[in-house]
Specification:
The chain is built from 25 helices and 28 strands. The chain is an alpha+beta fold.
Length: about 750
């Protein structure tokens, strides 16, 4: 059924009228930061018909023709491909035990639905595998998502993609965006930093890789891997948006921070000195992803507005930021570690110019990795050795010395290519360029760097050289264009970064932020760890029969400064605990760990009975249900058949009478304790089931019981049970039990 994506010929349309009538690729939305001041002063945005935007930009074409990155005939093909909207692509979460079942269901049940379907007279192509993605777990459907949504015959496919995305089984992600995390080669013990993480699709890949091969079967083994992922973003709003993307994966090994990547503060750790005393050291990361802010001209197929907004000034203004982020990343990288630098731009001044400048300054410590044997099916071009440097008006300058005086502080020497002999010695050809026309994707640049020696101050030259950029950056672009720079490119935020790069500047920031017990972050509820001797926590462990060798009491944290359980309890691993504990005053933590237990009050009638029994006022949160189940004694988990599961999902509340007397829940309902019970439903024999098992949190009150589950989760399970979500469409989201009156 499937043919490699690069064998599917993407035929460019010959003129604009044909392109606009080809409705597979009609209106699309673009992602961007909201402009304007306070919310009350914002004016409603006018509707933009993307079909009316001419897909042409004279300056863009002139600039890239001058660069001559490709032969003339190939450049024409690339340009025509840019005018066609991106296909729909997604990947399956590899670390789920049921990943193969997700793939088989998609291939055998949903793909045949596409065969023979048409949209406005055009035949819809059959989905294809992305050949270079490991495990045959990524697919492309060569139509925009809007067509899937508008085609009645594809409604089941749309529901499948939507609900499987919500529950974390798949991620809808642009194909080229999947590349950088694959080259990082993350292992379960690695300390990983994603410097510019929002919106989080690459971060999700890193988390999945961290949990690959993790062992939860041994009764004496921790249920989570020892490594962690720190996902950072400079924009506060987008850092909080990361939480939704990350929560789908239910990982206790993730923390989200909100800092400018170009002067990312150090993460402190305590270690034992030679004489046994406690010593503070800076954490070094095994893997770092620097998917930096960029001009985004590889995203024309997705961001239609770029056709009228593209200007070289954006790339010129971001070059300094990109150098500084890469520089800071290498400072934070452990010796022997790997850093991936990537952009969604095709511009050499954002790519090879940045990488070569850093390689020259760190020669003897950092090198480009030969990745020719990694992802062999990925079609890529090598890095280029020559490029032209122009100002914002496309005037070319052969060298830095040719610049007029008004541009000297705006265009640093690092923009120009090094002599070819130096670039050859640095192996700049090991950089990777992915062009849109080669595999029906967006444009992308990737460079894999390895730090094989300590830097030991070798970067002072590049820091000094870029001081001029710091002084002249804001003069390089107009105020209006500065706002454009702040628009996020796909999987990155094209914001103007602050201008600090030195290690000692980061140390200075640590000191400033530490004053006043972290006053800068008072608006954020602090994370605090609960004492393992806390009576409330002991009661929770006793009630749910949790094995404290698999889930440790000292690794639970709360969102208050006192470490007292009053609401939600989050679980983390030991490394994340060390990071939060030692950095609470100078790191802005947005989110950490996975929510496992949540306090739930009983109604008045139930409370009277509960106080006379050993009832627990905490329930298991669905986010952490699987994690909790792996640590609980099997006797404390009630196994139910799928018939009982249907009853639970089809009713907002249940009582004993809701179940047949001979059913499992009908027999044991009275014996269930007041409060939370964890139910396990076996779905192995269900025709459309993806998961082999699902866990349900049931909250039992004096009269009724509620399933504590979000609407999207209910819909996903119903989809697996009967291929329909209609029965769950009107169910409310996770909520407190109904009144017992």
């Amino acid at each position: 059924m499937f043919e490699p994506i690069h064998s599917v010929v993407c035929k460019p349309l010959t003129n604009r009228s044909q392109r606009l009538s080809f409705n597979f690729f009609g209106r699309i939305g673009i992602m961007g930061r909201k402009k304007g001041g306070r919310r009350g002063n914002r004016k409603p945005k006018a509707f933009i018909d993307w079909d009316t935007i001419p897909r042409e930009n004279e300056n863009f074409e002139k600039y890239y023709k001058t660069q001559a990155l490709l032969p003339e005939n190939e450049w024409t093909q690339l340009l025509e491909t840019l005018k066609i909207t991106l296909p729909t692509t997604f990947r399956i979460t590899e670390t789920n035990k049921h990943a193969r079942r997700v793939r088989d269901l998609f291939v055998n049940h949903y793909c045949p639905m596409v065969n023979g379907c048409e949209y406005e007279g055009q035949k819809i192509p059959i989905p294809t595998e992305i050949p270079w993605y490991p495990g045959k777990l990524a697919f492309t459907i060569n139509i925009p998502k809007s067509v899937i949504r508008k085609t009645p015959a594809l409604k089941p496919l749309q529901k499948f993609l939507m609900y499987e995305t919500e529950c974390g089984d798949i991620s809808r992600q642009e194909a080229v965006s999947m590349i950088p995390p694959l080259f990082l080669d993350v292992k379960p013990h690695h300390k990983v930093l994603d410097m510019c993480a929002a919106p989080g699709s690459k971060t999700a890949q890193l988390i999945e890789a961290l949990h690959r091969d993790s062992n939860v079967e041994s009764p004496e083994k921790d249920i989570v891997p020892s490594g962690l992922v720190i996902a950072n973003d400079a924009d506060s709003r987008r850092a909080h948006m990361l939480v939704h993307q990350i929560k789908r994966l239910n990982s206790p090994n993730v923390v989200i921070t909100n800092h400018d990547a170009s002067y990312m503060p150090n993460f402190h750790m305590m270690t034992e000195g030679k004489t046994g005393e406690a010593k503070r050291v800076n954490l070094k990361f095994d893997r770092i992803l620097a998917d930096v802010p960029c001009s985004g001209d590889g995203t024309f197929r997705k961001n239609i507005s770029l056709w009228k907004e593209w200007t070289l000034k954006t790339a010129l203004g971001l070059h300094a930021t990109q150098v500084k982020i890469l520089l800071r990343g290498l400072q934070m990288l452990a010796t022997g570690g790997r850093l991936v630098y990537s952009t969604c731009s095709m511009n050499p001044i954002e790519n090879e110019a940045v990488v070569s400048a850093i390689l020259k300054a760190t020669e003897g410590s950092v090198r480009l990795v030969d990745t020719s044997k990694e992802l062999p099916s990925l079609v890529r071009n090598p890095g280029v050795f020559d490029w032209k440097v122009m100002d914002g008006d496309l005037n070319e300058y052969k060298s830095f010395e040719e610049l007029p005086s008004n541009l000297i502080q705006r265009m640093p020497k690092t923009l120009w290519p090094l002599p070819k002999s130096e670039l050859e010695r640095l192996h700049i050809e090991r950089c990777m360029r992915v062009y849109p026309h080669q595999q029906n994707t967006g444009g992308f640049f990737v460079a894999v760097l390895e730090k094989y020696n300590d830097l030991e101050g070798t970067m002072q030259t590049i820091v000094d050289e870029n001081k001029a950029i710091s002084r002249g950056l804001k003069r390089c672009i107009s105020p209006k264009k500065e706002e454009e720079v702040k628009k996020p490119c796909p999987d990155s935020v094209a914001h103007t970064q602050k201008e600090t790069t030195k290690e000692d500047e980061s140390q200075k920031q640590d000191a400033v932020q530490s004053r006043g017990n972290g006053n800068r972050f008072q608006e954020i509820d602090p994370f605090s760890y609960v004492s393992e001797d806390n009576e409330e926590l002991k009661k929770i462990f006793s009630f749910f029969k949790v094995n404290d060798k698999k889930m440790h009491r000292d690794l639970f944290l709360v969102r208050n400064p006192n470490g007292v359980p009053t609401g939600a309890l989050y679980y983390s691993n030991n490394l994340l605990k060390q990071i939060i504990t030692n950095n609470r005053n100078h790191i802005k933590f947005v989110h950490g760990g996975v929510k496992v237990f949540v306090r739930q009050e009983f109604g008045s009638q139930t409370k009277e009975v509960a106080e006379k029994t050993d009832a627990c006022y905490y329930r298991i949160q669905s986010d952490g249900a699987f994690l909790a189940a792996t640590a609980m004694d099997p006797s404390s988990v009630t196994n139910i058949p799928s018939s009982d599961l249907r009853v639970l999902l089809d009713n907002e509340t249940v009582t004993k009478e809701s179940f047949p007397e001979d059913s499992t829940l009908g027999k044991v309902y009275e014996s269930l304790p007041l409060g939370c019970s964890l139910l396990r439903a076996d779905l192995k024999n269900e025709e459309h089931a993806i998961q082999e098992e699902v866990y349900i949190c049931l909250w039992k009150s004096f009269r009724i019981s509620n399933v504590m589950m979000a609407k999207s989760e209910k819909q996903n399970i119903l989809l697996q049970l009967n291929g329909s979500v209609a029965a769950a469409e009107d169910k409310s989201v996770e909520e407190a039990p109904k009144s017992e009156a």
